[in-house]
Amino acid sequence: ALTCSTALAQKDWPTRSIQLEVPFAAGGPTDSIARLIAVPMGQYLGQTVVVENVPGAGGTIASTKVARAAPDGYTIYIHHIGMATASALYDKLSYDPLTSFEYIGQVADVPMVLMGRKDLPPNNFKELEAYIKANGAKVTMANAGPGAVSQLCGLLLQSRLGVKLTNIPYKGTGPALTDLLGGQVDLLCDQTTQIIPYIKDNRVKSYGTTTLKRLPAIPNVPTLSEQGLKGFEVKAWHGVYAPKGTPQAVLDKLNAALKFALNSPDVKKRLEDSSIDVVSMDKVTPKSLKTQLENEINAWGPIIRKANIPD
Ligand code: MLT
Question: Which residues, 6+ apart, have CB-to-CB distance to 261 below 8 Å?
């Protein structure tokens, strides 16, 4: 039963700042989307939305933290496709992606690009394929750690090519990208959120996008699918969540705040510049996010289990 004071607390919510948990390091793509939506969400709610980075173990540390947080509306959570893949990547999770959270809505679908260091010999994907087949485990591939979508992309790539490269996990995309730009690692498949300027300035080699259509921001970069990896598609879709039991009235306000943020011209422009699609408003709903999560758990589970997971 709702006591008078909790009912009042819900009516007044929010009376203080709200923490938006991010399961990856600061400076990475998930962090930058979180920070982008936090500002207009805060404006809508009349309180600051403070981003807190809780990186590690493919996002599962943050997911555990959020699942255990007080369901009072002051802790909310943004996660990407990793919410769906964790159950196939980890033997035991201390939360259940389908029952430990409330769903607020989908956010954006982020495409990815397979990149190489600037001085890696191959100049296109066909040449890269030959180079990989000739050099095998001498080729190094960065990822943002186990459970990262960059790991997932690398995993699919290696399974489609039937090779095992030397996979190097980093603590997040920030350090992985730094090493790619510095030439310390050969390959990285990364979300478009922060890499378009590097691609345009040829500070990296671009071997293909993980989308079925070319991206408006970099129309000269072919898709991997059109270069022989037919149907190769990986997108970092995002959702906003809250701990299970967060009051409905609070969830409704959070959903309205998320919609407001995604309709903000600044947010739209920033995402469009990176060829990121804000989802249509009918997807910014709890039901749509839950369906997306269920579909993706079913789609990726067998792929991950079948592929030999690179470390
Ligand atoms: C990050 O923010 O570091 C990324 O989203 C990690 C990834 O999934 O590749």
Answer: 36, 37, 39, 40, 41, 44, 267
Indicate if ligand 1 lies below 6 Å from the C-beta of 192: no
Burial status of residue 256 (CB atoms within 10 A of its CB: 0-12, 13-18, 19 or more): middle
Q: Is 210 near ligand 1, meaning CB less than 6 Å away?
A: no
Helix (H) or strand (E) holding 104: strand 101-110
Which residue lies with its CA nearest to atom 5 of ligand 1? 30
State if residue 71 touches ligand 1 by the CB under 6 angstroms criterion: no
Residue 310 pLDDT level (bands cut at 50, 70, 90): very low
Residue 146: per-residue pLDDT: 83
Q: Which amino acid is at 283?
A: K
What DSSP element (H or E) covers 50? Answer: strand 49-53
Nearest CA owner, ligand 1 atom 1: 28
ipTM of model = 0.96
pTM for this prediction: 0.91
